[in-house]
Amino acid sequence: MTSSVNKSLLSKVKVVWKTLVVVILSVLLFAPTPALAFDNITLISHSFKIQQEIENVRKSIKILPSLSYENSKAFFVHIDNQLQKIKTESGQNAKKFQDLSNTYQQESEGLLTQIKDDKQPKIVLDANQETFLPNLTNGLSIPIIVNLSAEGQWNYSSKIIDSIGRMRVDANGSCFNIFGTTIVPADRNCLDINNYLSEIKPRLLFPEVRPAALVTLKKYLSTNKLVAFGKQQNYQILPNETVNFTQNDVPGQYSDNFGSQTISFTISDQDKFMVNNNQFFFKRIDNSITIKDLSYKDELNSKIETLSKKIASNNNMAKFYDLIERRIDLAKQKADNVREYADELKSLSDPDILSEINELDKFVVNLTTNIL
Description:
The chain is 45% helix and 21% strand. By secondary structure, it is α+β, with helices and mostly antiparallel strands. The protein has two domains: 2-114 and 305-368; 128-256, Jelly Rolls (Sandwich), CATH 2.60.120. Strands 1, 3, 4, 11, 13 and 14 form a six-stranded antiparallel sheet that branches. A six-stranded mixed sheet has the order 10-9-12-2-16-15. A two-stranded antiparallel sheet has the order 5-6. α1 (2-29) packs antiparallel against α5. The longest helix has 52 residues, at 294-345. It starts with a helix and ends in a 7-residue tail after the last helix.
């Protein structure tokens, strides 16, 4: 008799201890959290489904007291399966909403790179850049005049050297040594030094232009049309028209070039009236710039604001399901404690067991407490 009593007391102590652990974790997980900003329609839809599944678990719990110990075994498994289903779906939904949030975040960051305050836009052109050329597009409804200037030095062939190393060439195609001293008059080409000009000139991208000069071109299908060249350029771009920038070299032989040019520009209208760059929005993607009306910036800001709301809503839905998933773990542990207690006592009619079943029911009811 004493042994039976001791065993019963030991079982109760074990259950009380496990229950205490669940209670401590519950205090942490069920503590009030800052209000989450949900999209109402999304929240209503998902919370309704969660509440339905919770109600199904409660129905199963309420049946337990009416069952014999033997019949309760299968029912405990059924309750665990119900809770596991909610947990699995919550984990999947948490990942789905977090992935959506990450997608919207990437989209927002892409728009933010376009909206940077870039009133003095510059384009950097590398000497060995033959494909994916930097470009400028007129995104306005009127023609514009581009006033371009370029600064920098580059080279275009390992064959063009002086006594102390490779020549540097400016955007006009004029040569300098590595100390920046002009060694060839501006009206001559540095290729004349090695009598290389006659060999290379016919094969240049634009034979009528000095080698290594900065050229602005328009692409028409597979052909290139020269627009302008040199350190200072002035030309018109029609609406929706794009110009590209490159060095005048032999196609297919850009890889041995080095150095770069930094291209800056101002805009004027077709009557040559200078217009302040503040009147335009410069949409930049990498080294491509599109001149847009200022209203485009407002459109981008509106899109970014919408994306910010979507990011916040999806983040909070991910947090919602993450909390549900972790709380379900506690509910499963709580149900397992009740099952172990029933196994020890071989009964579900014991007052302590009935009290634990009632506590389990309350626990499940509060799965969404302080979240919604």
